[in-house]
């Protein structure tokens, strides 16, 4: 019998978690693991450059999580300013991420790719690594850390200079990809039409491609950061 794990997915923005880890989350729920999702930014009414959509997109997140089977009490929202995280003091970003991870005390942690184009992603990954250091009891408890890919961010960096997303962990998600795509479609305000990278067609194609590398029908791929046994 498999031991149940506490799994935390860190999402800088609403839908990052579903784009990168959606099928894996649905599979983990089906296997009896406890899945948590933390969405760390929002767009408030006083945002200097973006139109407020906090309540709309959070409703979409809740709908997507319901489709994936994630309990509503396991969905965490924080209010760092969308696209402005790099303008926050480093200690303030670190504090938000630290408190979320400490409150969940996960066994498994998923974070975005370190070199994503979006600077919010980069700063939040850095903060997660600070929080996950094994110098604390809850940091030591995190046995596995993975970086996920987010179509529309991960592959738009200058990968020849910074380093591209080179996965070394593949999760067979045959039987769960349709749930992921249904959850992605719940993000009506964020969804795009093909050939845009943030489209259902592109996400299915990526799952087929990642799966084909390992002779799987569909897969989600990750980069391993830590594995403690």
Describe the structure.
- The model has no long low-confidence stretch (mean pLDDT 96).
- The radius of gyration is 16 Å and the shape is globular.
- Strands 3-2-1-4-5-7-6 form a seven-stranded mixed beta sheet, sandwiched between helices.
- The protein contains eight helices and seven strands.
- The protein starts with 5 loop residues before the first strand and ends with a strand.
- It is α/β, with parallel strands linked by helices and 229 residues long.
- The chain has one domain (6-227): Rossmann fold (3-Layer(aba) Sandwich), CATH 3.40.50.
- Strand 2 (34-42), helix 2 (54-68) and strand 3 form a beta-alpha-beta unit.
């Amino acid at each position: 019998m498999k031991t149940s794990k506490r799994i935390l997915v860190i999402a800088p923005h609403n839908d990052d978690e579903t784009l990168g880890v959606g099928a894996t989350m649905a599979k983990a729920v089906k296997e009896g693991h406890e899945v948590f999702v933390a969405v760390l930014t929002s767009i408030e009414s006083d945002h200097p450059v973006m139109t407020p959509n906090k309540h709309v997109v959070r409703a979409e997140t809740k709908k997507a999580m319901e489709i994936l089977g994630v309990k509503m009490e396991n969905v965490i929202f924080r209010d760092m300013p969308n696209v402005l995280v790099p303008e926050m003091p480093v200690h303030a970003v670190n504090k938000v991420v630290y408190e979320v991870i400490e409150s969940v005390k996960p066994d498994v942690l998923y974070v975005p790719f370190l070199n994503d184009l979006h600077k919010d992603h980069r700063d939040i990954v850095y903060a997660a690594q600070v929080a996950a250091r094994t110098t604390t009891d809850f940091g030591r408890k995190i046995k596995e850390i993975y970086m996920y890919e987010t179509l529309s961010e991960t592959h738009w960096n200058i990968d020849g200079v910074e380093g591209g997303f080179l996965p070394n962990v593949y999760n067979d998600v045959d039987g769960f990809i349709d749930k992921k795509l249904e959850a992605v479609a719940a993000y009506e305000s964020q969804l795009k039409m093909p050939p845009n990278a943030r489209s259902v067609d592109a996400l299915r194609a990526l799952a087929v491609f990642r799966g084909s590398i390992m002779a799987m029908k569909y897969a989600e791929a990750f980069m391993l950061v830590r594995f403690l046994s």
